[in-house]
Amino acid sequence: MSTPEEILQGLYDETLVGNAPRVLELTEEGLMLDMEPQTLLFDALIPSLEEVGARFERGDFFVPEMLIAGRAMAGAMERLRPLLAETGVQTVGKFLMGTVKGDVHDIGKNLVNIMLEGAGFEVIDLGVQVAPEKFVAAIEEHQPDIVGFSAFLTTTMPMFKANMNALEKAGLRDSVVVMVGGAPVTQEYADAVGADGYAADASATVKKAKALLHEKRSKVPA
């Protein structure tokens, strides 16, 4: 049986290389040693995923490496999520995510979800082909801090504006931060549709989401 220090180091190293079976084994070992789920998350899994993001930004890692590391982390999160909920661990914020109507691409979205979860966000994923009215209903139900619209096809990018119009009409625009992203999306396009934020990749999304959330909360009067 490994020591707690060895488990944390192992979780960090194996998440980095995307060894999902070993990450799950080490997670179970840690729990058997009565290690706190938040210790496993904040002292090993999140730092490892942050390192994955840093390597991606430097050009040392590419999308496949990010994906396998993300999947390894996701496996551990499946095990830890209910335990973290029991301990009442404070989430950073609530992020509602979906691929817009007409678009069925979700690899990028799923990777962003994993990175956000790893950073401490509670993520509600509406899946693909999400119509404006479905976004509106989900915002009313879950009251997220941030909503993310994802599009992979150039032809579905106009749905961003349709979604924004739906939020305006429902009187929800001011209550949520809106982020947009996807392969064909640019900062200019995000500005044109009136989004609050844009990020080019999963790692950048986490940083931008945290910054926008901090900005939003600092504006709220005490």
UniProtKB/TrEMBL annotation:
- The B12-binding N-terminal domain extends over 1-92
Q: Where's the B12-binding domain?
A: 92-222
Instruction: Output the PROSITE patterns linked to this UniProt entry.
Output: B12_BINDING (PS51332), B12_BINDING_NTER (PS51337)
**InterPro entries per record:** Cbl-bd_cap (IPR003759), Cobalamin-bd (IPR006158), Cobalamin-bd_sf (IPR036724), Met_Synthase/Corrinoid (IPR050554), Meth_synthase_dom (IPR036594)
Q: Where does the UniProt annotation place the signal sequence?
A: none
> Which ranges form a coiled coil?
none
Q: What domain of life does the native source organism fall in? A: Bacteria
Alphabetized, the UniProt keywords read: Cobalt, Metal-binding
Q: What is this protein called?
A: Cobalamin-binding protein
Source organism per UniProt: Nocardioides endophyticus
